[in-house]
Design brief:
The protein has 230 residues and is an alpha/beta fold. The protein has one domain: Rossmann fold (3-Layer(aba) Sandwich), CATH 3.40.50. Helix content is 36%, strand content 24%. The strands form 2 sheets. It has a 9-stranded mixed β-sheet, with helices on both faces. Strands 4-5 form a two-stranded antiparallel sheet. The longest helix has 24 residues. The radius of gyration is 19 Å and the shape is globular.
Length: 230
Amino acid sequence: MALFFKSDKKFKGYTLIEGFPSSDLVSSITTKYLIDKLNMDYIGYFEHKNTTPIIKIENGVPQHPIRAYVSHKHKLICIISDQVIQKEDLKDYCNIVLNWAKKARMKRILSIGGIIDNNQTIIYGVANSKKNLEYLEDYKIQKIKEGITAGIGAQFFILEKNYPVYLLLVPFDQKKNYDAAAKAIALLNKMYNLNIDNKPLLEESKKINGMVNNQLKEIKEKEYTGPNII
């Protein structure tokens, strides 16, 4: 696996937010929204031998599936992927991201995901050490006392015990991942002084939820209601 960047500029003190796709899509939605709203600059892409030959076309130009963007004003870097990373490739991706972050002297790596929870107001956090956990406590992010996590966040924790790596888990239900992304943006606003409006995400959530409810209603109305046959 390799990195290809337009610039070899050091990113001392920057925070790297990874947006590799997860089943709940919270990371992808949040990261894409950050890139768009902060007008982040494209700085390069990640190449891997198992990259699927499917690409996004934008304004007539092909976009590499796994890209990195930067906001120098806010000292943020975002990685976004149009492809799901296969579990057998997670270690490769995490290693290259970790090595890049350390070499470029970035301050931390932040992963964002969803968690199904009855309390829709609490955002949970995990850090790779007790010392690093203090950073999350500064923003009243509740630590998970006991549980299991999987995927790219877990892979980062397996590989790195000292360099600051964090996982934010935002409560959501399966029909409201845009709601969860809006909560993530609200928290990132506080953490990095971004002042991004998250209302469009909430509106999108209502729109999608309404579409799903209408579809369920149609299905229910079309259900067979004749006599049961034994």
